[in-house]
Amino acid sequence: MRERRLTGLLASVTAALVGVIALGAPAVATPVSSPEAASAREALRVSTYNVSLNRPSEGQLVADLEAGDEQAAAIAQVLQTTRPDVVLLNEFDYDEAGEAVDLFRDEYLEVSQHGEDPIEYRYAYTAPVNTGVDSGFDLNNDGETGTADDAFGFGEFAGQYGMVVLSRYPIDTDAVRTFQNFLWQDMPGALLPDDPATDRPADWYSAAELKELRLSSKSHWDIPIEVGNTTVHVLAAHPTPPSFDGPEDRNGRRNHDEIRFWSDYVASPQRSSYIYDDEGTTGGLKPGSRFVIVGDYNADPEDGDSVNGAATQLLEHPRVNDPEPVSNGAVEAAEVQGGANAFHDGDPALDTADFDDTAPGNLRVDYALPSKNLPVRDAGVFWPAADEPGSELTGVEPFPTSDHRSVWVDLWVPGLH
């Protein structure tokens, strides 16, 4: 039997590492459908997938997974079909004991779903996020405190809309960096929102609020994965949607700066010098490091409500390669659904999320963006057209899986066999 590890962080300002160990038998990863298995690809497949496994109350995800959950089974089938080696799951509710992560691996991923081969992830990482953590302030200025909108990240309970990284390769837990507590005001030139009712600039938040307000609506994680002799840094995040606010555009501005954080982190040491992690270590990623930026960034480079240039901070970054993954299903959906999609400037083939067709329409918001020193072998979005295999796993609202699609990129990594 092989050791299987779940690593994460305790919900404290010191963010101490903890481990939960379970045992699991090796899984045979022979594919039954394209995309092909890692051994045949001779490439590292890194994926991001907003799985919408968020629930309205704390503990409900664990209860649902224990009872048998059709949505979770369908999501597992997508992962068994696409077979990523490393995958970030957004909107996966966090629980400190890691029960939901273990249940999802044991009862769903390692069990065949509709004939697909099981898939085993020996390593997993999860940690606390800012969603649902009460700030103690009236952050939306509606005269009330203690609401979901007054949390450091929108949420009904601490850990709602959390994140998980699953990996076939070892995670260097001692080198993980998290940035849950980084303050928004500590970013030079931050786009702090302005109260339009006053003449003072950038005053939507009080000085007291800015001393506590965190940049990350969930968190930012730098997770080093050991792929043979090569370290690949998985840079994971889930910025807030740039909507659900008012003329101050507090969410749009925060979304922009959450995205900017990684843009600065992978840039020069001078540009990233202001950054500090939850352990107090300063600076960004070491020059020359290999990385993949993954997550639901809630920003389309051409359409939607995000601040102009929010997504292009990454897509046009000199150290980042945009593989521009496409799908047939996205093109078909834009044509069939019409509405706002008919007025979009972006290429519908690049869309990764099936949103309300009146506004904003389908968008490209989910990304797997490698550093330029990780050559791209292939990339794609799991969004089959109606007459293609797997279309029953995407479908139309109410979606059997999620309103987001799985996005993946295949990378050449030195020494990978």
UniProtKB/TrEMBL annotation:
It comes from the Bacteria. Signal peptide: none annotated. Keywords: Endonuclease, Hydrolase, Nuclease. Residues 48-404 form the Endonuclease/exonuclease/phosphatase domain. One of its GO terms (molecular function) is endonuclease activity. InterPro entries: Endo/exonu/phosph_ase_sf (IPR036691), Endo/exonuclease/phosphatase (IPR005135). The keyword Hydrolase applies. Pfam families: Exo_endo_phos. This is Endonuclease/exonuclease/phosphatase family protein. It comes from Georgenia halophila.
